[in-house]
Amino acid sequence: MDRGILRAALVCAALFGAVPLFGQTQPAPAPLIGNISHRQTVSLDGSWRIIVDPYNTGYYDYRLKPRSDGYFQNTHPGMYPKELIEYAFTDTETLEVPGDWNSQRKDLFFYEGPVWYEKDFTYHAKSGDRVFLYVGAANYFSRVWVNGEKACEHEGGFTPFDCEITGVLADGDNFAVISVDNTRRPDGVPTVNTDWWNYGGLTRDVQIVEVPRVFINDYSLQLKKDTADQITGSVHLRLATAPAQVRVRIPELNIDQEFTTNSSSRADVKLHAPGLELWSPEHPKLYDVEISAGSDAVKDRIGFRTIEVSGTDILLNGKPVFLRGISIQEEAPYRSGRAYSEEDARTLLGWAKELGANYVRLAHWPHNENMVRLADEMGLMVWSEIPVYWTIHWSDPATLANAQQQLTDMITRDRNRASVIIWSVGNEAPVSPERVQFMKSLVQAAHEQDPSRLVSAALETHSKGNIRIVDDPLGQDLDVVSSNEYIGWYDHKPEDADSITWQIAYNKPLIISEFGADAKFGLHGKSSELWTEEYQENLYEHQFVMLDKIPTLRGMSPWVLMDFRSPRRPLQGTQDYYNRKGLLSDKGEKKKAFFTLKAYYEKKAQQPAP
After folding, report:
1. Can you give the pTM of this predicted structure?
2. Are 535 and 494 in contact (CB under 8 A)?
3. Which of 256, 274, 305 is the last residue before a domain boundary?
4. CB-side neighbour CA atoms (13 Å) of 517
5. In 379-432, where does DSSP find H-type helix?
6. Can you give the residue range of the structural domain that contains 412?
7. pLDDT, tens digit, for every residue of 379-421?
C-alpha cells in the first residue's frame, strides 16, 4: 500500500474508530518544557505535505454516527483504507513550516478552517530516555498524531505546547500528522471579532526534544527585590521521586552552588552575587547560566534587574524610568504574513531602537520567542500580552480556563527574560461585572505565578466634556494603569487634544498603551486631510502637547510600528486590507510621523524621568 495512503488511513481509522468527541477526555499537552532553544532537539521544520479540508471530513464523516456513550461508530465496517484514498498525502501540495498558509498560497489568503499537515522523517535517538514533540505555535486548534498514535491536542494560537511521544517513535522511518484549524470560535481566546489577520497553520518551529527520564522542565532566576547582588528563584524537576541535587553555575560571577529538591521536586535557589551588573536598556548585560541535575543540564543567558512601582513611578533597578515605547504586531516585515524568524525580530526591534524606544508593547498575544530573547540582547523592555481582546465569553468557565492556560504558558516560556517587565491580561474589554471578575482572576494568577513583574491591561476610557476619564474597576488590581485612546482619529480633531485633560481614578503609573492615525505611505496633502502622512504627523504633534500635561504619565506605546494586515480594513486604494496606522509601511518605508516621534523621544531621553 502507498505510504501516504497508509498514513491517512491510520489517522482516520484512529479517529473514526474510537475517539471520544463529545465531552470525553482527549490527550492533553504535557507540562510545558522551558528553554527549548538550549535542549537536544531535532528540527521538523521545512516542507510538510498538506490537505485543505474545509468540511473537516478528515475528522467528521456522514457515515459515522454518535453512539450513546459519546463515541463515533463506523456505519461502514471495512471501508478503510480503500474509501480514504482521497485523503492520501501522496503527491499533495506542500507548505513551509514555520509559516502561515494565508501568505504562502493565494487560494488560502482568506481561508479559515482545518488543514492537515504531514511530514515523513527519519529519527535515531541521540540521547535521553524521554521524547517530546514541541510546537512553538499553531493557530488555533491543533490535534497531533505520531505514527498514527494520538499524541495530544491544544487550543490557543500563540503559545507553545509539547506532546510526549516516548515509545511511539521508531528507530528509523516515522511520520507526524497535525490537524490545524484556525476557525474563529465564539468561546475562543480571542473570540470571533478581532482587528488582525487570522493567519492559520504551524506558524512557529516544530521540533523533537530529547530529555533524560528525570529532567529540568522549569526554572526561574531573578534579582531579589530591594537588592543589587541577591539572586533568588527555583528549579523544578519532572519525575523526581526522591530528593535530588540541583547545581547552578554562573561562571562569570564565580558562582557554583548546589541545592536540594523538596517534596514537590522543586529546589529553592538563593545566590549571593557580588559584582553583579544589572540589566537595563542602556546596559543590557546577560550572564551565561548553567543548571544541571543528574544527567540533565541546560544553559541560558539571563539578565538580572528589578521592576516595581512606587506611587506613580515605575522603578527599574530602583530608579524612575519613562517608557518610550511603540506597539508592535507580529507581522513579518517586507513580505507580510506571521513573523517568526530571528531575522524578522531583528528588523522589527531594530526599527524600534532607531525610533529611540527603550520599550515595546508586543500586542495582542505572546510573540515568538526570538522577539523576547533579542529584546534581552538589544536592551528593550517588553509588555507581553494574552489575546483577551475586546469581547470574550466572560461567564464561560472553559473560556476562563483557556485564558489562564495561555497566561501560564506565556509566563513559563518567558519568565527568565529580563526584558519582560509587564504581563498584560487583555485589551479594550468593555466593562461589566462578569468581565471585571474574569480579568481580576487573570491578574491574580499572574501575580501568583510571577510576583517579580508588573501586571497591566489596556483599558478603555470615557469622556465628560473635555475630560478623559480612566476609572475602570479593574484598575484597583493592576500595578500599572494603561489606556488606549484615539483622540483625533476615531473622535475629535487632532487639535482638540491640546485642550483635553485627564482624570485618573488611581494613584498609579499611567501608560498610554495606544494612540495613532492611519496614513498611507507616499500619500501627501494638508494636515487636515485624512489618510495623508501629514495628518498622521499632525496628530502625533498634538498628542505630545496633551500627554506632556498628564502628571502621572510614565510611558506610551503608540499604535503601531508597521502597517499590518486586517480584514476589517478593506478600503480600496488606501487600506487594501491593511491597518495603516504604522509609522512604517508594510515594505519598511518610513512615514513622516516616524521622524516626529523619534525627535520627541530624543528630547525625552535627555530629560530626567518624572
Report:
1. 0.94
2. yes
3. 305
4. 30
5. 397-414
6. 309-606
7. 999 999 999 999 999 999 999 999 999 999 999 999 999 999 9
